[in-house]
Each structure stands twice: as structure tokens, then as C-alpha cells.
Design brief:
alpha+beta; Porin; 9 helices; 22% helix
Length: 461
């Protein structure tokens, strides 16, 4: 019985003793491996410290003096982080040759060598980078235009500010300031500097998180009448604006007034994007609308429908209506009706090399005046094809009556060639032929340089 008990004890305890010996050996091996890794990390830290001190010496030699001296003895107190080695083992922390203690202790830069030579420490980055967080995106866009040839603009058009372009002019310099105000709104300002002065082209706040999916805008902005009226000069694919814009929509400034706007995406079937916009303005937009008293506000409505035809082609359609008082007084109204269409072909893999954009807009104007109400019609069609990454060729046909004399109809066409040195500059040439209702025809050659400085936000698609 005793022999059996002895054999049982041997069988039970010997494997446990062997496992314990194995565990001790494995622990010692792991500790040695950890110690070697800590020594390697310590060597890398020392090497990085030496490189930093070499950079400090080089910067001090080049600049002479940089920033005020820093007392290295005060750095741990300023940082406020406790020493993990001292907290765990005070005796071990005092050993300078212990690699574990050296690796876990806070690494304070050794500044004694620099301070001994009487040289201050450099100040890297910091407040200058952080101070830009609250600054808006700032951009400046230059638009330089030249013209040659014979414009032959009739005196009647010159009298209302639609005269010929000068031979050379810094047409416009647009300063843009754009920023997110808070999670619920953003702000956009566009100031234009011309040869005749400074003007506020647009300045508005947009509330993007209203209940019911509404987006509201308040300030001074371009009205959503068609497509061209919403575009700034530097976004246009031509140097000038179409005749229908000049004759019926107040030209370059267009419907641009102080007002309020509400936009909402509407439900639609079969993958159609449908958006409705309602706007009310003070009532002053060039020679189209004029406010004689406080109640002479103008209103504008726009309905937009967008649909992808294929993966590479999409169609954008719009219907617009605007109504306001004209310069003859509060009893005289002007009504505008518009249709716009944009067809885009953009191959997914080659869009920066080849694409096509076709545009068309049709505008009907009804203007109250004495002795007869004037009903004018105008339109333009255009196409622009990108030949490769740098070159774009396009053409445009124009035809429009005049708002004050609908029986006088002007038409013309243009050929445009654009070179893109980069995404931030354009060089454009345009031949423009205009057949006026009275007087000789106009034949002109225009050229344009556009250049962008800074971060300019994307305009509406």
C-alpha cells in the first residue's frame, strides 16, 4: 500500500515540478528578450536626440539667435506627467544603468550643451499653425481681358451700358471669403475689384440643417434664374456673356440683389433629382427690376430636374420665373420666363482628357411700358469639347430681341479656344461676330487670362 501511494505521489508531482522549471526558464528568456528590445529602443532614442541637437547647432549657427532660453529643469513640472518608474520601484529608478528604467522614464531634452554656449533654443511651429483654424478660406481670382477689331455697337445699346470692350482691361479681381460658421450654417462673401471701384457681388449666410430638409439663404446673391445668371465671370466657358443675358437679364450683373431664398429637394420617381427654389428680393437688379418704394419686391421661382442617362451622360433641366417692377414706376411690371438645359458627357476613366458640355437657355420677357407692352424672346445654344487635358474648343450661337424694343433682334456666333496650363489658370481666345438690328456688323477678337490664388470653393453644379 505504501509503495502504491509513493508511486501515485511521484506521478502527480514530478510533471508539475518539470512544468514549473520550464515556466521559469521561459520567463527568463522572455525577460532577456524584452531587455534587449529596451536597450535597442534606448539606442534609437539616443541617436534621435543626437540628431536633434545637431539640427539645433546648425540652426543656431545660421540664424544667430532664435527664441528665448528654456530652463530644462522646469520642463517635467510644466508637463505634469509622473515618472512611472519612480511610482513602481523607487530603488530601481535610481539606477542609471537599468535599461528598463531609462526607457520608461520621461525623456526630457538635454539642453545643457546649447545653454552652455549661450544659444537659445528654437521654437518649432505651435501657435502660428493653430491660429489658422478659425480663418476662412481666402482666394483671389484675376480676370484680364483684351479686345481688338470693330465692335460697331449701336448708340442705343451704348446708352444703356452695353458698349464695346476696351482694348485692354483688368476686368475683375474677385476676392472670396468662405467658411463653415458652425454645424448649422456657412458663410460666403465675394468682393469684386474693378477699374471703376469695389462692389459686393455676393455675401450671404446659408442654413444647411433646417427641419424638413429645407436649406435657407439670406444676404446678397445671384438669383436662380436659369444657369448663366448664377455663374461668376471666371466660371463661364466664354469671355463674354450671351446676347440674351445682355438684352433681357441685365447683362453681367444679372439678377443679383439682397434677398431671402428657400430650397428643398422634392420627391420624384425613376431616379430623378428634383429641387425647388423660392426667392424674394428687394427689387433692384440692374435695368430689369427697380424698386421705387419698400413694397416693390421682386420674386423668383426655379424648378430643377437632374437625371443620369447613362454612367457617362446626364441631363439637367430647369424652369424659371421672375416678376418685379421696372424703372418706369411701381405700376409697371416685368415678367421673365425661362427654360434651361445642360447635357454633360464625362467618360469615367478619361474625364480629364475628354468631355463634352452642351448648354441652351430660352428667355421670354414681358415688360410694361408706354405706349405698348414689349414682349421679347431670346436664346443661346453652345457646346464645349475637351480635346485633351490642356485644350478645349467650343462654339456658341446667340439670338435675342431687346427688352425695351422687342422688334429689334440681334444675333451672332462665337468660336472659343481655351488652354489650361493647370487647374489654377486659363488662357482663352474668342472670335465674336454680331449682327445688329441696325448698323454694321461687329467682328472682334477677344482674349482672356484667368488666374486663381488661394482656396476657392466650388460653385454650384
Amino acid at each position: 500500500m505504501k509503495e502504491a501511494l509513493l508511486v501515485f505521489c511521484v506521478v502527480l508531482f514530478v510533471p508539475a515540478v518539470l512544468r514549473a522549471q520550464t515556466s521559469v526558464e521561459e520567463s527568463e528568456a522572455r525577460f532577456k528578450a524584452l531587455e534587449e528590445r529596451v536597450r535597442a529602443l534606448e539606442a534609437e532614442v539616443q541617436e534621435l536626440r543626437a540628431q536633434r541637437m545637431a539640427a539645433v547647432h546648425l540652426a543656431s549657427a545660421r540664424n544667430g539667435s532664435l527664441s528665448p532660453q528654456v530652463d530644462s529643469s522646469a520642463i517635467p513640472e510644466l508637463v505634469g506627467s509622473p515618472d512611472p518608474v519612480k511610482a513602481a520601484d523607487p530603488v530601481r529608478a535610481g539606477d542609471p544603468h537599468d535599461p528598463v528604467a531609462a526607457a520608461l522614464s520621461p525623456q526630457v531634452p538635454d539642453t545643457s550643451a546649447v545653454q552652455a554656449q549661450g544659444q537659445p533654443l528654437p521654437n518649432y511651429g505651435g501657435a502660428s499653425a493653430a491660429s489658422k483654424i478659425l480663418n476662412p478660406d481666402i482666394s483671389m481670382i484675376g480676370d484680364f481681358i483684351g479686345a481688338t477689331g470693330k465692335a460697331n455697337v449701336p448708340p442705343a445699346l451704348e446708352a444703356i451700358g452695353q458698349g464695346p470692350l476696351p482694348v485692354l482691361q483688368m476686368h475683375e479681381s474677385e476676392l472670396g471669403l468662405q467658411a463653415i460658421i458652425d454645424p448649422y450654417a456657412r458663410g460666403d462673401f465675394f468682393l469684386t475689384f474693378g477699374e471703376s471701384g469695389v462692389a459686393l457681388e455676393e455675401g450671404y449666410i446659408t442654413f444647411t440643417a433646417l427641419p424638413g430638409g429645407f436649406v435657407a439663404k439670406g444676404g446678397k446673391f445671384r438669383g436662380d434664374f436659369g444657369k448663366v445668371n448664377t455663374l461668376h465671370n471666371h466660371v463661364l466657358p466664354w469671355i463674354d456673356r450671351p446676347l440674351v443675358t445682355d438684352r433681357l437679364l441685365a447683362g453681367e450683373d444679372g439678377i443679383d440683389d439682397a434677398g431671402l431664398s428657400v430650397t428643398r429637394i422634392l420627391p420624384a420617381p425613376k431616379g430623378i433629382f428634383l429641387e425647388g427654389t423660392a426667392q424674394v428680393f428687394r427689387g433692384d437688379s440692374g435695368d430689369v427690376f427697380t424698386s421705387s418704394k419698400r413694397g416693390d419686391a421682386s420674386v423668383l421661382g426655379h424648378l430643377r430636374a437632374y437625371r443620369d442617362i447613362t454612367d457617362q451622360t446626364n441631363l439637367d433641366l430647369g424652369i424659371s420665373y421672375a416678376r418685379g417692377h421696372n424703372d418706369l414706376g411701381s405700376a409697371f411690371l416685368t415678367d421673365l420666363y425661362g427654360l434651361d438645359a445642360t447635357l454633360r458627357w464625362t467618360p469615367l476613366r478619361r474625364t480629364i482628357y475628354h468631355n463634352f458640355v452642351g448648354r441652351a437657355e430660352f428667355v421670354w420677357s414681358r415688360r410694361d411700358q408706354l405706349p405698348l407692352t414689349q414682349r421679347a424672346f431670346g436664346f443661346f445654344t453652345s457646346g464645349d469639347y475637351r480635346l485633351n487635358r490642356r485644350w478645349t474648343v467650343g462654339g456658341r450661337f446667340d439670338r435675342s430681341g431687346r427688352a425695351r424694343a422687342a422688334n429689334l433682334i440681334d444675333d451672332g456666333f462665337s468660336g472659343v479656344l481655351t488652354y489650361w496650363p493647370s487647374e489654377f489658370s486659363q488662357v482663352r481666345g474668342q472670335y465674336r461676330f454680331t449682327h445688329f438690328a441696325e448698323g454694321p456688323d461687329g467682328n472682334e477678337l477677344l482674349f482672356q487670362f484667368i488666374f486663381v490664388l488661394g482656396a476657392h470653393g466650388a460653385h454650384p453644379f
